[in-house]
Design brief:
It is built from 13 helices and seven strands. The protein is of the alpha/beta class.
């Protein structure tokens, strides 16, 4: 791994996730979150010459990490469109789907992208810089009740109503366009000892809304369920409870809501069999090398 790639993003649970894909000769694989290319490069390293890998990323920065390999195809798109692109490339079924749902360190470290409260810059947070609303658009234009819902549902913040109320009041005086503007308004709501943790939740909530992450994840999970061959593997790394709940529910019940349907004998109807009943987490050694992996959880399932 070269230095630039390490700076971009250290792949989390690398061996555990690629092992979980159960690579076979002549297989067709998808990496739904290409990013710095760490997982994709390891898949290519282990693949045979007749296998194919399709890697998705909606962020133009990820294109700089594209691998020159005839077995590899980069798809510049949101992973929710998995079904459309497989059809476009004439692929009916795949042998494994991998997704690392974490935001790369590259995004957090780029002040211009607006993902982190460590820098001042535009309040943007778009993964795809070509499309959609920015975090500033949401903060300045959403109704108070909708803002409160976002902070409560996606950030699990107890003071979500107060937060929304303060923002709505502040924006009547002055438009909130930068991270500095935003922090000036919200920081007084948090005690110094918990400030970083609470601000991380606020930024997470806005990022999820900007990128419609929950809706996109739901669509990708259903598309992956459809695309996988019997015996194919679903390999997902999650970082917060909202994502993890959706993945866990899909594996257990076949839908992201967790609604159980049972057959005549009381067996739960699901297209998956969990490969690891106990969630896989990073080792202490990995967490020391890459603190961002601390909250990572890996779930692996096999299509029935």
């Amino acid at each position: 791994m070269n230095e630039t790639e390490t700076i971009y993003h250290i792949p989390v649970l690398l061996n555990e996730s690629i092992d979980g894909m159960n690579l076979q000769p002549g297989g067709i694989y998808t990496d739904m979150t290409f990013g710095g290319g760490g997982h994709s490069k390891e898949i290519l390293r282990r693949m045979d010459k007749d296998s194919r890998l399709f890697s998705f990323d909606q962020d133009e920065d990820a294109e700089k990490n594209i691998v020159n390999d005839p077995r590899f195809t980069f798809v510049r798109s949101n992973f929710r469109y998995l079904h459309n692109f497989l059809r476009y490339y004439g692929v009916e079924k795949v042998d494994a789907v991998l997704a690392d749902l974490g935001v790369s360190s590259h995004h957090f470290d780029d002040a211009e992208r607006g993902f982190s409260f460590r820098f001042d810059g535009k309040l943007d947070m778009r993964m795809n810089k070509r499309a959609g609303m920015t975090a500033a658009d949401i903060v300045n234009n959403y109704e108070e009740e909708k803002l409160a819902d976002i902070f409560y549902l996606y950030g699990e913040l107890k003071n979500s109503r107060k937060l929304a109320s303060v923002l709505v009041k502040a924006r009547t005086q002055k438009s909130i366009q930068t991270i500095g503007d935003f922090l000036e308004v919200v920081k007084p709501l948090f005690g110094r000892e918990r400030e970083k943790k609470e601000l991380a939740k606020v930024f997470q909530a806005l990022r999820i809304e900007v990128n419609q992450e929950m809706e996109a994840l739901k669509e990708m999970l259903y598309a992956a369920t459809e695309a996988l061959k019997p015996g194919g593997r679903l390999v997902i790394i999650t970082y917060h409870s909202l994502e993890d709940r959706m993945v866990k529910n899909l594996i257990k019940t076949g839908n992201v809501e967790g609604k159980m349907e049972q057959d005549f004998f009381g067996n739960i109807q699901t297209p998956f069999r969990a490969v690891n009943n106990k969630v896989i987490v990073p080792s202490d050694e990995e967490i020391n090398q890459n603190p961002r992996s601390r909250s990572a959880k890996l779930r692996i399932a096999e299509k029935r």
